């Protein structure tokens, strides 16, 4: 029986701090937590303005869950509250590296036809499913083909 000992070299601490958002912006900081795998989970967040003043904070008990569900719920609830309280424009900060999305952009519904088609079908037929490439047929396949070809869509003024 052999033992392997690894010498750990202490890493130097780094200084980190919360920073305010740009003037006239708000910042949502979220966190999710769970105790065990899976275990009791919770989600929370706080929205502050460019002077650092708190506009609202929230906590959500989730019962049994996982860290990913807790982190995503914290973001979802924060966005929902920011919208309800007109706290925009909004920067979102999370400490879960696995959830980071490098770029979220707005797209008009007319140019988001594939996702729009899927959600309308899901809502009207009460579907929950995952589609792989070979499962995509009919109208959805046509929408995706047109997207790949760069076909433009008309958007009427609203």
Automatic annotation (TrEMBL):
<dbReference type="InterPro" id="IPR002156">
    <property type="entry name" value="RNaseH_domain"/>
</dbReference>
<dbReference type="InterPro" id="IPR012337">
    <property type="entry name" value="RNaseH-like_sf"/>
</dbReference>
<dbReference type="GO" id="GO:0003676">
    <property type="term" value="F:nucleic acid binding"/>
</dbReference>
<feature type="domain" description="RNase H type-1">
    <location>
        <begin position="29"/>
        <end position="99"/>
    </location>
</feature>
<protein>
    <recommendedName>
        <fullName>RNase H type-1 domain-containing protein</fullName>
    </recommendedName>
</protein>
<dbReference type="InterPro" id="IPR053151">
    <property type="entry name" value="RNase_H-like"/>
</dbReference>
<dbReference type="InterPro" id="IPR036397">
    <property type="entry name" value="RNaseH_sf"/>
</dbReference>
<dbReference type="Pfam" id="PF13456">
    <property type="entry name" value="RVT_3"/>
</dbReference>
<dbReference type="GO" id="GO:0004523">
    <property type="term" value="F:RNA-DNA hybrid ribonuclease activity"/>
</dbReference>
<dbReference type="InterPro" id="IPR044730">
    <property type="entry name" value="RNase_H-like_dom_plant"/>
</dbReference>
